[in-house]
Amino acid sequence: MQFNSIPFLLLLSAALILYYCLPGRRRWYVLLAASYLYYLAAGAEYLIFIVYTTAVSYVTALLLQRRADAENAELEANRDALTKEERKARRAKGKKQRFRILVGGLVLGFGMLAVLKYTAFVLSGVQLFVPSLRIPDLLLPLGISFYTFQSMGYLIDVYRGKAQAERNPLRFALFVSYFPQLLQGPISRFGDLAHQFFEERGFDGARFRAGLARTVWGYFKKMVVADTAMIAVQALVEQKLTGAYVVLLILLYSAVIYGDFTGGIDITIGISELFGIRLKENFDRPFSSRSVKEYWRRWHITMGTWFTDYVFYPLSVCAPMQRLSKWSRAHLGPALGKRIPVYIATIVTWFLTGLWHGAGWNFIVWGLLNCLCILVSQELQPLWLRWQAAAPRLSSSRIWGCWQAVRTFLLMGLIRSLDCYRNVPLTFRLWGSMFTDFNWGEMLGSLTKLGLTPADWGVLAAGILVLFTASMLGKREPLRERLSRRPVLLCVCLTLGVIVILLFGSYGIGYDAGDFIYGQF
Amino acid sequence: MEKLYEILKSLHPDVDFTAQDDLIGEGILDSLDIVTLITEINSAYDVSIPAEEILPENFCSASAIYDLITRLDEA
Amino acid sequence: MRKKQWIACLCILLCGGVFLWFAQLLLEPKYMSGNREGAMTAEYYSDGSPHDVLFLGDCEVYECYTPPTLWAEYGITSYIRGTPQQLVWHSYYLLEETLRYETPKAVVFNVYAMRYGEPQNEAYNRIVLDGMHFSTVKLRAIWASMTEEESFASYLFPLLRYHSRWKELEQADFQYLFHRDPVTHNGYLMQTDVVPKELDIEGEPLSDPALPQICFEYLDRMRTLCEEKGIQLILVKAPTNFWGYYWYDEWEEQIVSYAGENDLPYYNFIPLEEEIGLDWSTDTYDGGAHLNVSGAEKLTSYFGKILREEFGLEDHRADAELSAVWQEKCSAYEAEKNGGT
Description:
The complex is a heterotrimer.
Chain A: H1 6-21, H2 27-42, H3 44-77, H4 84-127, H5 144-160, H6 169-177, H7 190-198, H8 205-239, H9 244-274, H10 292-298, H11 301-317, H12 319-332, H13 334-357, H14 361-379, H15 381-390, H16 392-395, H17 398-416, H18 418-421, H19 424-436, H20 440-445, H21 454-473, H22 479-484, H23 487-504, H24 513-516
Helix pairs in contact in A: 1-2, 2-3, 2-6, 3-4, 3-5, 3-6, 4-5, 6-7, 8-9, 8-21, 8-23, 9-17, 9-19, 11-13, 12-13, 13-14
Chain B: H1 2-11, H2 31-45, H3 56-59, H4 62-74
Helix pairs in contact in B: 1-2
Chain C: H1 3-27, H2 40-43, E1 53-57, H3 59-62, H4 67-74, E2 78-82, H5 88-101, E3 106-110, H6 122-129, H7 136-145, H8 153-156, H9 159-162, H10 171-175, H11 213-229, E4 232-237, H12 249-262, E5 266-268, H13 273-276, H14 293-311, H15 320-340
Parallel strand pairs in C: 1-2, 1-3, 3-4, 4-5
Helix pairs in contact in C: 4-14, 4-15, 5-7, 5-11
């Protein structure tokens, strides 16, 4: 069920009305019912998988919590009888036991994701050597990457003592399945999200208005900008056009991914605000980042922090890694020694990040290229500092900042185009063609052959201009927050927004007069 | 404490760590820095900082980091 | 929010609504020139006088029977609710909807559409359904007709379907914002060109000769509806028989046996072309696939006689009021016919 489908809007409206009709304590039942209805609409056969993940993480978390509680109670009871060393030993032993439970839960949870999402990919690799192998056609349940990550993050939080295990299975089911974020995140933390479902809150008009504004804004980004640009992107990809067309694709696909993803998240966060629930921000004006590292702090933030907190940190500070570091310091020198854990953990994290995005080599290469950019810029840091010292005025000027932002934008766009072609050698070839094939005149002349009319290009350009302006004006405080304090003005903007989306958005069956021309019948 | 400042200084020679109290929020220390920092601290102070202690409040300033080290050393 | 703000917001929303309503009127295709077929469904409602005969079907009715001729020669009042590629369920719902307004004495259904068990093209759905006035019948018709890619809401709010037409607005869209000109003569869409038939092309052999079950189900429903209202249902097949629109013997057998089982009159005009007097060098506008006005008048004369003699339909020419109405229709008809040739 897409966000811009009528059934979704109906479900949402019904849920909102019911939500605010019920007393505060009962409201979360509406969210749970809506979430499961949403999931059911995607396909009843998917339901079993989300129930499985919910059950696995619910039970594992309870086991972890029970162990931790028992451990604490025992230590508390024997506080005076034990020495400090004995207490420490008992804690360590308890932690080890809990770790085993955690690993069990993670294996069960991630196992399902791995089997469903990666079996075909792995087997297609094996198939190179065993051509007779048959690749099973497994279904990929809606949102499984997101809800699995969210549930597994919760398990680790319970293990670390950062979250209390939820005892009510229905309440926990809501945390896993909360429908606005099921499709594309953000990946919420239990501690941030769950308590908000069950809090008693009054109706907050200003918040509701801000949510409404954000939702409409999201639809604008998605339907007017992303979906329009996508038409041309598809044409470019299908025709595998070279040279200047690749540059065009990089620019257009940046608009697509920005509009679609940040717009989708705007809708998700906006809808949540309608219910009075605040989700974590997933984007922070990412295209103004001056470096790849900064970009990844500001783009898909909840995924980035998930990987940082649950993969990168544990991996880089774990005992074997630290031992490795010590060893390499002794044998390879301090400079290399201190880099080893960081580098290994970074590479592994980006490999997994790539894999998370999809089962395919293009995603893995995409992840590793990001990693390469980050590590190279890390190594070039001293050089950069020297240049900064040599030209302090230029390096702190606005123009230099703009150049850095443009450079980062283009670099990320380039790497991202792997996602369009879905074929690594082809992508590399097309990248190369940008430097050998100077067909700019031809490209500019054939813009209207890419499925968009001049009027469509006009809408797209205007849409991108609006996004850019809003982002600039919203540097300090997003425009919608300012607007939500002025209800009448907000109402004008919302009405205009809806009109613009309805008229200029790319949706439905595209009108083609040819279809209506009476074909001799 | 001096040793800690030295480590920090080697990461970012251009930052005055005595004056900063929001190293994470202001983006001075990123995740790569933090891991390098932990590796250095682990070997310099003979402690081991576990992943669950990597929280913004433990790394927001030099003194917070020092508190963390002492806490882990005593525990 | 204060009361004043509420009122202001309400006004703004109202303005937005009115604007969208205007936009919808503007963006809907007008079908006033070029593909005029799109305007046919809606035109029915502006015809106030009652009809004794209702024709249902595709181009094999709205290009084959001329109500003005039927009046001029027999005094029989009639209306054709035909649309391009009208499918059997379209016909059924148009029948059900027409019965909300009037009860004709006879319903004439052309059987060519019995060959289609599935919608062929979204545009033909829109052409039948967009023009229907809002009613529960229309809602059911939409449900029954929608292809998978279509959305129900886009029939309730055609703006959702035609929103991208802002790129190709033309003068006619403004001119016909609130009204339409008539494009037919009681549902008859006049074709005056003459392109003689030069070849006799038969259809390719059929892979599956069975007519789809769903068509018979809807035909059953039409039959039941007519029985309930005491209406004579007559099945016909237009005399055209050409290549892509070929009428196979296998289909003919199935229709004949259905008509026999259900005691329905069925007239296949294909073997009767000589009796009707059709001349394929003058009576077709596209080389034999469809009849032009000359052919349609010949067929109408022939069929009018059947309606009079077999089904006893009344001659209303003595009725002064009806005569006046039809006089006007006939002169408009003659005017287009003479203007066009």
